């Protein structure tokens, strides 16, 4: 107990310091620098891709091998970053990710690798390596040499470990107010630097695997791994393209080449062609790439994907070859996150609340996806009287020639990408605690039955069909992002947002409690994260004067009876 109390105390002090300095320094994604220092998405992606090319991943017997590894690997170049993590199996497997100063040095280390009879298998050269113990004779001298080496510190240790929920909750209990809780939650659950590095290394592995035939191939992470809305342990969404997109240029076009590549004839149907190619890529990953296992092909989906697990990175990967709009959508979300420092912490709290209430689920189904939920948050921030985010159409208006992006299927993904040109700065001064409550209140009253949400226009439109929830797909505006959501799940969302609004409204930020009393009380955000099965839903909650009545939640013209019991929550009327 003493140790735990000390641990909590340490984390608290650390977190409060981080929160205080956050506005000045920013974090990996939650960056809040002046607009001219905000990296645009392509720069951010490019920087991470280059970092992956300078990196190798080495399995070691434990973190204690680091001085020896450092000493050995320094002979190939200068190591500028070293991070350790464990993959937990029956025995913990230890890995160290090393970054060299240049890609050439990383290649030299890879080229110096050897195959071993101890590890039988397909001889593939890759940045995934194993550090063999020194031969008996050389052991002592290797250890001595390592001891004298001045090494780059190995930070972090066990860098993919997630804060266990008990400790996280203790931290949140010890926060000063709800706003601080929201910041702490974001700080301690967001994907960290090591997580981002590992995901870009996974992408590089796929890219290198096909680069013989496709020297310009690009395997690019998208989704929560790179848009800044990802939490520790999130999946990697990856898009593989065989060639680069032609980048529009203002320069006068030169004489077109007279040497034309011969190509293999396509199958008549583009979709079957992609499916066949993905089958083949799936086999290749499965048969040849170290670490890749449990490969599954989901080729009949709207966007065909190959799913696999990466053993060395302890990572689930969804690989697609035809989801460029998803890629550009991630860029839009990244930009929204960069435009205002409140966007990401707020979204993290809402996503966690949705998960705890059983509204979202890692597997796809009739419930709202994390992506749709994120769209709801973005729209809420756009429609405020003093908007915190601009509509997408406003971004489109700022686009210059360099921002033109048209996908192979002709979908226009052009919008302004330069923060300075966009020049948006919100005048909204609400804090995170106020915004959280306003979010729940807003969706308690939202007319999902008649209105569709448009992030492009930053307003609600008449709903074009009978889907229970309609969010116009920002890049393919004839589609509905939340088409999968059933009426029952939409109603459940409305009940849960009302519940949450009520809980937050009745929350008194009791600053008179002593620190030890605070530690024992679930307050603020923690009230929202209670397991729904255990949550007490007060019978009178629907009769609060400020709220609409429960009967208003259901459309009276519908023939079905209003549901009484939802997935995990029983509503007592
Ligand atoms: P988690 O995986 O739950 O952490 O979130 P995610 O944002 O990665 O969601 P998901 O893996 O479902 O989707 C990956 C990315 O694809 C999203 O971030 C979006 O950029 C994009 N995406 C998902 N669904 C749609 C859609 O219906 N339309 C468009 N245009 N993009 C989508
Ligand atoms: Mg994802």
Q: What are the SSEs and their pairings?
A:
Layout: H1 2-25, H2 41-53, E1 55-60, H3 66-73, E2 79-88, E3 92-100, H4 103-111, E4 128-130, H5 139-148, H6 165-173, H7 178-189, H8 193-210, E5 218-222, H9 224-227, E6 236-241, H10 270-288, E7 292-298, E8 305-310, E9 315-320, H11 324-339, H12 343-356, H13 370-383, H14 392-397, H15 419-422, H16 432-445, E10 451-454, E11 459-462, H17 487-505, H18 515-520, H19 525-528
Parallel strand pairs: 1-4, 6-9
Antiparallel strand pairs: 1-3, 2-3, 5-6, 7-8, 8-9, 10-11
Helix pairs in contact: 1-7, 2-8, 3-5, 6-7, 7-12, 12-13, 16-17
Bound molecules: guanosine-5'-triphosphate and magnesium ion.
């Amino acid at each position: 107990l003493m140790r735990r109390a000390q641990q909590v105390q340490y984390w608290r002090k650390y977190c409060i310091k981080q929160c205080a300095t956050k506005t000045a320094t920013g974090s990996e994604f939650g960056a809040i620098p002046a607009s001219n220092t905000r990296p645009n998405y392509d720069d951010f992606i490019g920087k991470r891709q280059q970092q992956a090319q300078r990196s190798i991943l080495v399995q070691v017997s434990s973190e204690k091998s680091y001085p020896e590894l450092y000493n050995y690997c320094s002979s190939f170049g200068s190591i500028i970053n070293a991070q350790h993590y464990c993959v937990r199996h029956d025995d913990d497997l230890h890995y160290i990710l090393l970054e060299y100063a240049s890609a050439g040095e990383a290649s030299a280390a890879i080229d110096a690798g050897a195959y071993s009879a101890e590890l039988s298998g397909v001889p593939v050269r890759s940045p995934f390596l194993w550090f063999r113990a020194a031969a008996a004779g050389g052991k002592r001298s290797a250890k001595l040499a390592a001891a004298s080496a001045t090494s780059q510190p190995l930070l972090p240790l066990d860098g993919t470990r997630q804060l266990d929920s008990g400790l996280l909750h203790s931290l949140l209990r010890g926060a000063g107010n709800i706003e601080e809780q929201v910041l702490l939650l974001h700080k301690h659950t967001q994907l960290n630097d090591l997580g981002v590095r590992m995901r870009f290394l996974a992408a590089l592995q796929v890219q290198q695997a096909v680069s013989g035939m496709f020297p310009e191939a690009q395997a690019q992470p998208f989704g929560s791994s790179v848009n800044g809305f990802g939490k520790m342990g999130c999946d990697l969404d990856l898009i593989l393209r065989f060639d680069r997109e032609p980048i529009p240029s203002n320069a006068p076009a030169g004489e077109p080449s007279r040497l034309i590549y011969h190509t293999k004839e396509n199958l008549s149907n583009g979709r079957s062609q992609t499916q066949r190619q993905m089958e083949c890529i799936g086999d290749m990953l499965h048969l040849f790439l170290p670490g890749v296992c449990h490969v599954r092909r989901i080729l009949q989906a709207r966007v065909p994907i190959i799913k696999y697990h990466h053993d060395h990175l302890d990572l689930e990967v969804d690989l697609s070859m035809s989801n460029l709009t998803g890629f550009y959508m991630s860029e839009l979300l990244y930009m929204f996150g960069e435009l205002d420092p409140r966007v990401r912490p707020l979204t993290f709290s809402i996503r966690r609340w949705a998960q705890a209430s059983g509204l979202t689920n890692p597997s796809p189904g009739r419930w709202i996806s994390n992506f749709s939920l994120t769209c709801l948050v973005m729209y809420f921030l756009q429609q405020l009287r003093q908007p915190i985010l601009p509509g997408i159409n406003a971004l489109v208006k700022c686009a210059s020639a360099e921002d033109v992006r048209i996908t192979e299927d002709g979908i226009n993904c052009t919008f302004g990408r330069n923060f300075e040109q966009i020049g948006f700065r919100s005048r909204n001064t609400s804090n995170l605690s106020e915004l959280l409550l306003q979010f729940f209140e807003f969706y308690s009253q939202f007319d999902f039955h008649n209105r569709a949400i448009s992030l492009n226009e930053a307003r609600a439109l008449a709903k074009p069909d009978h889907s229970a929830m309609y969010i116009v797909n920002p890049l393919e505006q004839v589609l509905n992002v939340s088409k999968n959501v059933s009426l029952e799940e939409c109603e459940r969302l409305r009940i849960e947002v009302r519940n949450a609004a009520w809980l937050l409204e009745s929350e008194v930020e009791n600053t008179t409690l002593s620190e030890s009393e605070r530690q024992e009380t679930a307050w603020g955000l923690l009230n929202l994260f209670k397991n729904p099965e255990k949550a007490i839903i007060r019978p009178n909650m629907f009769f609060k004067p400020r709220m609409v009545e429960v009967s208003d939640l259901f459309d009276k013209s519908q023939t079905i009876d209003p549901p009484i019991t939802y997935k995990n929550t029983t509503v007592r009327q």
